[in-house]
Amino acid sequence: MARTKKNQVENTTAQAAVVENASKAATLRAGLKTLCNSLAELAKQAGRTDFTLNQLLRESYNLQEQELDTFEGWKARGANVRKGQHAYLFWGAPVESKKGFTYCPVAFKFSREQVHFENANA
Predict the structure, then answer these.
(1) 61 contacts 109 by C-beta, under 8 angstroms
(2) Dist. CA 108–CA 50, nearest whole Å
(3) Which residue among 12, 30, 41, 69 has the highest number of C-beta atoms inside a 10 angstrom radius?
């Protein structure tokens, strides 16, 4: 009986975490959409028509030609993201959902300036 109650509590806690993460993801996604809409409108007003949203985001973050990668990407290359650094938000590659529609997830990228390599020769 005690084990069943413990499993119920664990399941409830896990479900709450999933809901919270989904809510955070939706908030981030909505903010990124709003930012992209504003950037696209400004670019069109300036006469720029040949751009991607990720190019506009890179410019708005003032990253110029800085090298970007995901947390996992930097780890695979032997680098660690410095403590306290926050990822830049971009649109990821299109993904086919289990329900049959295609969407672009939010991609979390860090610049070369936000990481350090264990080996000084990198």
Answers:
(1) no
(2) 24
(3) 69
Q: What is the pTM of this model?
A: 0.74
The first and second tokens of residue 39, run together, are 């950037």
- Phi and psi at residue 104, to the nearest 5°: -105, 115
Neighbour tally for 111: CB within 10 Å? 19
Q: How far is CA 106 from the centre of its chain?
A: 4
Distance CA 107, CA 117 (A): 22
pLDDT tens figures, 20-65: 677 888 888 899 999 999 999 999 999 998 889 999 999 999 998 8
Which residue type sits at 6? K
Q: Would you list the DSSP string of the chain?
A: -HHHHHHHHHHHHHHHHHHHHHHHHHHHHHHHHHHHHHHHHHHHHTT--S--HHHHHHHHTT-TT--EE-HHHHHHTTEEEPTT--PEEEE---EE-TTS-EE--EEEEEEGGGEEESSTT-
